[in-house]
Design goal:
By secondary structure, this protein is of the alpha/beta class. It contains twelve helices and ten strands. Strand 3, helix 3 and strand 4 form a beta-alpha-beta unit.
C-alpha cells in the first residue's frame, strides 16, 4: 500500500504546468436519466470498451503519482461502474481526496450511500437544477427525482458524508434564481457548485443566457457567498472571478478601472483551502480547462474538460502525467498569452481567462474570447 502523501502539498505553490489540482473521471457513460443538458449524452448500459478493473486501478494510481490531490468519480452514473467501492478504497489508501456524483435513480439507496461512506468517500454530490419538483423533474426527464434528491441530500448529511449540490444555471431557471438560492441555503451542504451552460452534447440544443444575464446571476451568487459557511464554486463562468475581485475593490472605495495589473490576484473568497469540517475546498489559483483540471473519459481518453471535447491522449497509450504536461493543446490552454480577442488584452486573463470550453463550443476556437462576458477591457486604463 502506498503511503498517503497529499497532506504535505503546499497549495500556495501549486504549479498548474506540472499537475492538475483536480481530475474528473467519467467512470462510465451509462446512466438511467436522460437530462436535457447532458454533456455525455449518456446511455442506459456501459460501453464494452470502458476501462476494465486493472486499467481503472492504474488510472487512480497515476492520479496519485502525478501529485493531484483530488479525484472525482463521475459519469454517466458512477453507481453503474463495477467495483466503484474498491476504487474509492484504493484512492483513499493513496491519500487522495475523493468525490462522487451519483444519479438519483433506483440504484441510489440509503444502503448504497452508507457503502460509499464506509469505502472512504469524502464528498457526495447531487444535481439540483430548480427550486421545485415540476421544473426539476422536467429538466431531468424523470418524475419524482426532485423529492428524492432532497431526501438523499438530507440522508447523506445524516450519515456523516459531506454533501454537495451541483446546479446548472441557464435560461430554464435564471428567473427563479432567488427562490433557488433560498432552497440551496436551507439544505445541509458543505459545497455548492454552480455550472453555467456550455452548449455541448444535449446542451447544444438549449438557449444560452446573455452576458448581461450572467452578470445578474453573479450578483446574486456573490451576495450568497458572502453570508454562508459552505463553499461556492462557479464552473464555466471564469469571469465570475473578475466580478468578485472588482466587487472587493468597490467595497474598499477603489475604482477597478485604474488598478496595478500586478495586484490582480484571486480573491480569498474563491481560494478556500477546505470547506466546513475539512471538506473539499477550492484551488489556490483560477482553474480552467486543461489548466489545473483534467477530464478522463470512461474509455481512458484525456480531455481538457468534459465540456471541451478535444482528445489530447489516452491512458491506454501514454501516462496521464506526460499527457497533462506535454500535450500541445493543454500547453496552449495554460498559456494566457495565446488568448485572442478581448480575453487576450484583458488584465484578468491570468486568473480568469474566460471559459475555454464555451469559446470552443461557440466558435470552434478554444483560444477565442469568452462569448458571455460583458466586460470590455481598455488597456490604457490599467496601470502597468
Amino acid at each position: 500500500m502506498h503511503k498517503p502523501s497529499h497532506g504535505s502539498i503546499d497549495l500556495g505553490h501549486f504549479d498548474f504546468n506540472q499537475r492538475p489540482f483536480l481530475v474528473c473521471w467519467e467512470t462510465t457513460n451509462a446512466c438511467d436519466l436522460s437530462c436535457v443538458h447532458c454533456r455525455a449524452s449518456a446511455q442506459p448500459d456501459p460501453a464494452p470498451d470502458e476501462l476494465n478493473s486493472d486499467e481503472s486501478m492504474n488510472l487512480v494510481r497515476q492520479v496519485h503519482e502525478m501529485g493531484t490531490p483530488i479525484l472525482i468519480f463521475t459519469g454517466g452514473d458512477p453507481l453503474k461502474k463495477k467495483g466503484l467501492n474498491d476504487l474509492i478504497r484504493y484512492a483513499k489508501s493513496l491519500g487522495l481526496k475523493t468525490g462522487a456524483i451519483p444519479a438519483v435513480t433506483p440504484l441510489l439507496t440509503e444502503a448504497r450511500i452508507r457503502e460509499l461512506k464506509q469505502a472512504g468517500l469524502d464528498q457526495i454530490a447531487f444535481s439540483l437544477d430548480a427550486p421545485n419538483a415540476a421544473d426539476h423533474d422536467a429538466f431531468r426527464k424523470m418524475p419524482g427525482v426532485f423529492s428524492k434528491t432532497i431526501e438523499y441530500i438530507k440522508l447523506a448529511h445524516a450519515c456523516g458524508l459531506a454533501t454537495q449540490i451541483n446546479s446548472l444555471i441557464n435560461v430554464h431557471n435564471s428567473r427563479q434564481l432567488e427562490e433557488f438560492i433560498a432552497l440551496v441555503e436551507s439544505l445541509p451542504i458543505v459545497f455548492w457548485e454552480v455550472f453555467f451552460l456550455v452548449p455541448v452534447g444535449r446542451g447544444a440544443d438549449l438557449n444560452l443566457l446573455s452576458a448581461e444575464k450572467f452578470d445578474e446571476a453573479f450578483k446574486k451568487i456573490y451576495a450568497l457567498q458572502k453570508r454562508v459557511r459552505f463553499v461556492i464554486k462557479v464552473t464555466e463562468a471564469q469571469h465570475y472571478r473578475k466580478y468578485v475581485f472588482e466587487q472587493k475593490l468597490l467595497e474598499r472605495g477603489i475604482d477597478p478601472r485604474v488598478i496595478d495589473q500586478n495586484e490582480i490576484t484571486l480573491p480569498e473568497l474563491l481560494s478556500r483551502a477546505e470547506g466546513p469540517e475539512g471538506s473539499i475546498g477550492l484551488a489556490p489559483k483560477g482553474v480552467n480547462s486543461g489548466k489545473g483540471f483534467l477530464f478522463v473519459s470512461s474509455r481512458g481518453e484525456v480531455f481538457p474538460s468534459g465540456f471541451l471535447p478535444i482528445r489530447t491522449g489516452s491512458v491506454r497509450e501514454d501516462s496521464l502525467k506526460n499527457i497533462y504536461q506535454n500535450a500541445p493543446v493543454l500547453r496552449e490552454l495554460r498559456d494566457s498569452a495565446r488568448l485572442k480577442g478581448k480575453c487576450g488584452i484583458c488584465p484578468y486573463k491570468d486568473f480568469c481567462g474566460g471559459s475555454r470550453s464555451r469559446a470552443y463550443a461557440m466558435t470552434g476556437d478554444y483560444l477565442a474570447e469568452e462569448p458571455c462576458c460583458s466586460y470590455h477591457p481598455v488597456p490604457h486604463m490599467v496601470k502597468k
